Amino acid sequence: MAETEAHLLVGVNAPDPKPAYRRRRDECPVLRTGEGGSAVISRYEDVLWALRHPEVFSSDSEAVSIGNERPLIPLQIDPPEHVKYRKLLDPVFSRKRMAILEPQVRRLAAERIEAFADRGVCDFHGELAEPLPSTVFLQLLGLPLERLPYFLELKDGIIRPEASATPVSRETTGRKIYALFEEALDARSAEPGEDLLSWMSEEEVDGRKLTREQILDICYLLLLAGLDTVTASLDCFVAYLAQHPERRRMAIERPEMLDGVIEELLRSETPVVTVLRVLKQDVTLSSVELKAGERVALLLGAADSDERSFDDPERVDFGRRPNRHLAFGGGPHRCLGSHLARMELRAVLEEFHARIPEYELAPGVQLQYSPGIRQVSELPLVWSARA
């Protein structure tokens, strides 16, 4: 990588990456990394255009390999084939269905919070942000909760691999994920339940039942998304609120603002920083020519803080209207689980603040954010224990 390019990468994984994002947008909105014909796109309008045109910026399996043997459904299937899978899955994750699930999520959140509320200290990541969404997801699929540590290990092996990880080790992890769901599907064949796996076993696309491979390819994707992105969002949100007590109090005192709080923190924090695509056609963006076959990273975090599309974007404004952020992506591949994520974020934030309205980071803590999907591995909070 050229030295003139390398300085643009500095700070992207910092606690506040916005200055680095700004340098990207201003100095090199389409940055060629010099590594195997790849580029990074950072301005909002360019990123949005790319997301809306999968015939040019394809999401198929050429864009990224994450240990899977076949394209993940529906992420790595482009239109028009993509449409039939979204038609099948969208109702399962609709706003209406999530409203039915919400009371159960709130009960789970309340139970976990009550377990540490009297202590005056917790690791928000380890005690709430990670186990709560993961538990909800496992219940949806009908997977055993006692195996959560193993599922998280598999997920991390794909999304957050060790520095020493190789493509071979990721493929090994991928085979374990397939084996996990093969075992679960065998169990459903013997004894169907009311869970998502049992439902998929009976559903049809194009007048034919989903094949076992199709179900495995859907489940592989759901495992990675369901055990990571809401956790990362909760970490980012509460880390911000812990360090900005005046903004937190405003959100608590005006509960009608909570939807705006969630949307603005999705924009400002943008936990899923980057999505990957591969070019199917030549295209020119921001006066830079890109060629078919090149791999491209769409920098959602930079797009969501672009002053060309948002007024005063580095200011967190809970009343921002409109708020057309790209935290859930955009276009045909917009996040399947966005309604589930919003419901879980609202439920956890309300239940947590109802019991622990005043808190801060533990003294001396320096938060470390992960690359790719912004998350903190530990988020120690302290507050005055209840009498």
Describe this structure in words.
The structure is a single chain. The protein has 387 residues and is an alpha+beta fold. It has a single domain (67-272, 312-382), classed as Orthogonal Bundle (Cytochrome p450). It contains 16 helices and twelve strands. The protein has helices at 3-6, 18-27, 44-52, 81-89, 95-114, 124-129, 131-141, 148-159, 167-190, 196-200, 212-226, 229-243, 245-253, 258-269, 300-303, 338-355; strands at residues 30-32, 38-41, 57-58, 121-123, 204-205, 208-209, 274-279, 283-285, 288-290, 295-299, 360-361, 380-382. The strands form four sheets. A five-stranded mixed β-sheet has the order 1-2-10-7-3. A three-stranded antiparallel β-sheet has the order 4-12-11. A two-stranded antiparallel ribbon has the order 5-6. It is globular, with a radius of gyration of 21 Å. The N and C termini lie far apart (57 Å).
Helix count from the secondary structure assignment: 16
Distance between the termini: 57 Å
Binned strand content: 5-15%
> Which strand order does the major sheet show?
1-2-10-7-3
Largest sheet: 5 strands, mixed
β-strand number: 12
CATH topology heading: Cytochrome p450
Q: Can you write the helix and strand succession as a string?
A: HHEEHEHHEHHHHHEEHHHHEEEEHHEE
Mean pLDDT metric? 92
Q: Which class do the helix and strand fractions yield?
A: alpha+beta
The domain count comes to: 1
Fourth CATH level, the homologous superfamily: Cytochrome P450
Rg calculated over all Cα atoms: 21 Å
Helix content: 40-55%
Oligomerization state: single chain
Low-confidence stretches: 1-10
